[in-house]
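Hi team,

Filling in the usual template for the complex we talked about on Friday. All components are listed, including any nucleic acid strands or ligand strings, so the model treats them as one assembly.

SUBMITTER: L.P.
PURPOSE: interface mapping
COMPONENTS: two
RESIDUES: 612
SEQUENCES:
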Amino acid sequence: MITRLILRNQSVFQLGIAVFGAVFGMLLLLGSLQLYFDFRDLLTNKTDLINPQFIVINKSVSMLNTLSLGNTTFSQDEIEELKKLNGISKVGVFTPSLFPAKAYIEEGAHKNVPGLYTDLFFESVPDEFLDVKTAQWKWREGDTNIPVIVPADYLNLYNFGFAPGRGMPQISKSTIQLISFNLLLQTPKGEKKFTGSIAGFSDRINSILVPQSFIDYANREFGNGAVKDPSRVIIVSNDPSSPELAQFLQAKGYETNSDSIRNSRLNSVLRIIMNIMVGIGSVIILMAVLSFIQYSQLLINRSRYEIRTLIQLGTHYAHICMRYVIFYAIIFSAALCMALALLWYFKSKFNTFMTEKGFEVNPGIYSMVLLAGLTLLSVFFLFTIISIYSSVRKLAKPQ
Amino acid sequence: MRISLSQVVPLVQPELAGKANCAWGSETQLDSGSFYLVKAPSGTGKSTLISYLYGTRNDFRGRISIDGNDYKTISLKQWSVLRQQKLSVVFQDMRLFPQLTALENIQLKNQLTSNKSVEEIKSFPAQLGIENKLGSLCAHLSLGQQQRVAILRALCQPFAFLLLDEPFSHLDDANIRMACELLKKECEKQNAGLLLTSLDSNYYFDHHHTISV
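RESULT (copied from the run log):
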């Protein structure tokens, strides 16, 4: 009977607008969250999330560099700056060889392998950044054989570009690892001869790599004495598609060939769109909260005779507030359910659309999204309850 | 139970104080078990006094206390308990809910205290002659019928003091007599006090104290 008295003076139109605002705002906010999670999964495939990604960075080469007016090396400060970036767990530098080197294979030394003579350079990176794990990858002073890692692309270039055109046989990875070649290092004390063998192929690092121990030794023994800053660094990023990293690299004029960095541009555009949606959703939610507060005031105001009389008859004001709270609990839960139902509907449409386009998306709604919905519900509730209690209490007080 | 007024003067009508034999600005005690008649012409603050005693207004100077508890220190929660258990009231303007029936209006009060059974409530109206109006919306009742509903609603709870603000203004003499008998009986049953404002009549309360305002 009390409920009947105090909830009698409804304005269906105003309540409807407030509910519509709440549903629409929640849908927009929750929907953009859900979309954000979906796209994030698409852009950073799951393995990247678990395995941090290795990214090789260099400075871009311009006309100035060609004219020897600029330099493309990383100073110690720049490396320290990289280390401080968010999400970067390790930074390794490439150590270049400071001596000229030549490699050659004598004609007929190996069956089916053409003779070859080439100038070479070497680099090394700390072993922890390598994607090739092999027992051959070691060098100690006194060893005459130097293991070398070359980019996997080199073998592909030879096998699928060079060899077929020349009518030469293709070579498998395991075959090429059996081939040894001669290395001539030019030192101030004359040429120094070593043998080399291919220890593996790297997909990650686009360089001719020798063990760090060899580079250190050879630069010391045969180097021209100049200490060169590294021109390339390799970083380990936990979130390679984060826009922050891409923005940093761009601002610094650094280059990378990592796909995930390129994704980050798309990612940052998406984030902007999501932020706009979240912004609009928040504004609508805020207005819905305000209109609910106003509506609760209106309802109380319209029932002020009933409320005051009930209190004068001995009803505790908190008891009256409770009836309103229950009423709004039902309204807000219904609004949230409607928003979630609509979200579910649009999500399933979105799933079908994405599947047709060949993308794989998480079919469900993220628990984070549900959590956000419940948080919104509590926000609505909290503000309305505060408003109800304060205005009913005002009516309860002696005049 | 005792309600004490000490030097109480309405803030809006300070000129009321200072008259001889007047409740305003003096020391007055109201005890349960006694009947008090506040007889005065209009505009002398009879309804104001009722509002003060019932705790719906507190714009007065001085002190009102109930069993030693200062009205101005009583919490809203304590007021709701007082109004359920100790103080009952008939407002001058009745304050019924026009959208509820007569019976619902009475039951609404009884729901708070569960003091009377439905049978008791239904047997009450016969004593005031409105038993055939119980199912009607209060909006459709005459003022006299509404006054009787308001009186019945006030009787539907335990009380130590019953405050009535010109409760018979729309009743004929026969009905007033019936109402007085019922009020006296219920007050005696609960050993309650009664305070009634009236323009000039004593009605049918033979043994009473007169308070002037």
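MY TAKE: Residues 46-50 of chain A have pLDDT under 50 and may be disordered. The longest strand of chain A covers residues 190-202.

Thanks, L.
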